[in-house]
Amino acid sequence: MTLSDVQALTFDVFGTVVDWRTTVIREVSTALAAKGVEADCEAFADRWRFEGYVGGIQAIRRGERAFTTADALHCEKLDELLAGLGSPLDGAEAAELNRVWHRLDPWPDSPGGLGRLRTRFIVSTLSNGNLALLVNMAKHSGLPWDCFLSADLLGHFKSDPETYRSAARALTLEPGQVMMVAAHKADLDAAAACGLRTAFVPRPREHGRISPPDLEYEDRFDFNAADFHDLAAQLGC
Amino acid sequence: MTLSDVQALTFDVFGTVVDWRTTVIREVSTALAAKGVEADCEAFADRWRFEGYVGGIQAIRRGERAFTTADALHCEKLDELLAGLGSPLDGAEAAELNRVWHRLDPWPDSPGGLGRLRTRFIVSTLSNGNLALLVNMAKHSGLPWDCFLSADLLGHFKSDPETYRSAARALTLEPGQVMMVAAHKADLDAAAACGLRTAFVPRPREHGRISPPDLEYEDRFDFNAADFHDLAAQLGC
Questions:
Q1: Where do the domains of chain B lie, and which CATH numbers do they carry?
Q2: What chain B residue is nearest to A134 in terms of C-alpha separation?
């Protein structure tokens, strides 16, 4: 099986397709300012993402807590972070802020690049987000997905191997007919270990204060691309 | 909860959105004529559909056979039907013919009607077809789905109640926020029993020789519409 056998591209979403950090900082700032609350909104966004969502998924993958959705993990951490600020939002306001993850803005090249790529490939999410979140985000941001594969549909979170294998099965493809596209090398390495092809697209502005983003191209990936338009050009779209 | 709470429309696909019978008869005729085989292609299509696919799903729902996909049920019955004609197709030709179910033509109002409906609602499949089949069909026919819910993703075939309940859960909606759209009253009645709203859209040309299609409007459905444009108009899209 060669690279020309690839029929579907599966994309990491948070960070790779959408700029979660800028959007979340903006909406947190607006929501807190409306209540006259001063806070470090960058730190708020980073803790929400890395302690709440990423930490929650790690605990689920280790078997320390029951399977749940990204929406639920976000809600739980938001309640904790707001409590630390004196709980300035009422229930409806907090629920509305929690849905910021459903309306994240795309990186500038994402809608157009995906549009080019879908002329030759099935383009699908392969995200730890839940289906409703991903569908609402697509409608908000004009992301022209062909389909959605998500942790709640597959019953596994990345980077468990079964996530990548069940994604290929759901598409009725062999792992070598699927290429994972991500800004995060750990995601790509886990996909490659399951037989998927890999394309690395660095997103230098993603990470903020917690950890440096992955930036350097690597020979071990099948493709390294500056953005989705570059990837489309390399793939002949 | 009222009709104005509906946020998502879930559609039966075979017969409601696409004209499986005309497409299958045409492709079977072409494939057999190329081999000089004369056959009753209408009867071939009806047996493929009703004995292979519908009958296979009924056996799975009764627990008489293991869960499998629409693709596999179609393949099994196709092999049997071709054997009855002296197996005129080789393996690759039969596999290609089996994929006719991935390239079914839509009813004329389906692409445009779905496009109108998705301006106000999430429009999703809720089909006993498998994901790859539905995604390929959407690309072939220009069906602008927001997302796909399918038997293989949900682990249940209609009209098992868990199919409708798990569809609402996957959309993070209450059953009463979801409306099932179908040309088949049994599908709508099963959805209504799970708390979903219902819209009936008759497709008089679907059935062929096996059984008469459902045609009469019914007061027990929330909406009765002549086609998807009429449904869009009734829903204010």
A1: 3-19+104-234 (3.40.50.1000), 20-102 (1.10.150.240)
A2: B147
